[in-house]
Amino acid sequence: MNLFQKLLNTSILLALAVSMTACVSTVLDVDNKANQPIAANLVSDMKKRKMTPADPILVRIFKDESELEIWKRDRTGRYALLKTFPMCRWSGKLGPKTKEGDRQAPEGFYHVSAGMLNPNSQYYLSFNLGYPNKLESALGYTGDALMVHGACTSAGCYALTDAGVAQIYAIVREAIRSGQSSFQVQAFPFRMTPENMARNRNDPNFDFWTNLKQGYDILEVTGRQPQLSYCGRRYVFDATFEGGNPRNPLASCPPLLSAENDVVAARRVSDERKMEAILASGTVISAHAYSDGGMHPSFRKLLKSRGAEVLAQTASLKNVPVSRPDAALADPHTPGE
C-alpha cells in the first residue's frame, strides 16, 4: 500500500469516527483544530485596543456569572479586557475544590505553561489549570486534571462550547508562541464587588474569598498582574519579605519589607465600607441558590427557546457558540459526566 492510499484510508476512518459520534466537525477541523488562527474580529479588537496577538494574556473566571475573561497587555504595559466568553457549564458550588471527587471547580490563582495545553483533548481543546497549586498542595487538597475545555460538560472543570474554547485556545497559543512562558488564571466564585461580598457574607468561605479579593483588586485598580507568594495558609500578593520569599505556605509569614499599594489599599477600604453600608441597610439579596453548578443565562435561554436537540445540531446562534450534544446540556442543574 503506497503512502497516498494509507493517508486516504486514515482520513476515511477518521471521517467515519466523527460521524459515528455525531460530531459536526469536518476531518479538516479535527486535524487542524489546535492551529486555527485567531478570529478576525478578535484581531481587529486587539488592534483597536493597541494590542497584538503576541502580547501576554491573563484569564479570569467567574462561577456565579458563568463567564471567562481574556485580558491582554497593551502598549501602555497594563492589562485590559479583550473579550468575555459565556461558560456553558461548571459543576459543584461556590467555594474552593478541596478533594478528589467533590465535583468542585477550583477557585484560586494558577499559572498555565505550554506543556499544560492539550490539542488532543477528548473535550475538543483544553488547558490544565494546574490544580492543586503550591498552597493547595500544602493544605492537602487533592484532585488533578482540572481543565478549561469544550464540550459543555463538567465534573470539576470549566466548560465552554467547542467554538468558544477554540477562540480562547488560539489566543493562548499565540501568546505562548511569542514568548510568554506561562499565563495567570484567576478563578473566582463571583465578581468581587461590595454587593456580592455582602450577599455572601455568611458563607463559610468568606474569609478565603476576602483573600482572593486582594488579588482581584490589584488587576482591577492597577491593570497589573498580581505577584503571588504563599504563607500563613493563604495567598499573599505583591509582597517582599525579609529573608526572601517564604518556602512553607503553612508557616507564619515573615516580616514584610513592602507596603500595600496606596491606590489598591484605598479601593479595599472603600469596598469594605460599601459592604458594611449594604449590610447595615438590611437590603442584602440572598445568595444564589443552585443544586449543582451553573450555565450562562444565554445558553439557558437558548435551551428553553430552541430545545436541546436544536442546540446539539447548531454550530453557533448569533453571538453564542453552541457545542455538541451532552447530557448536562439538557438540564443545567444536572451533574455532568
From TrEMBL:
Active-site residues per Swiss-Prot or TrEMBL entry: H149, C157
Keywords, ordered alphabetically: Cell shape, Cell wall biogenesis/degradation, Peptidoglycan synthesis, Signal, Transferase
Matching InterPro entries: LD_TPept_cat_dom, Transpep_catalytic_dom
Pathway linked to the protein: Cell wall biogenesis; peptidoglycan biosynthesis
L,D-TPase catalytic domain ranges (all copies): 57-188
Signal peptide positions (record): 1-22
CDD domains named among the record's database cross-references: YkuD_like (cd16913)
PROSITE patterns in UniProt: LD_TPASE (PS52029), PROKAR_LIPOPROTEIN (PS51257)
Family as reported in the entry's similarity comment: Belongs to the YkuD family.
PANTHER family from the UniProt entry: L,D-TRANSPEPTIDASE YAFK-RELATED, LD-TRANSPEPTIDASE
Protein known as: Murein L,D-transpeptidase
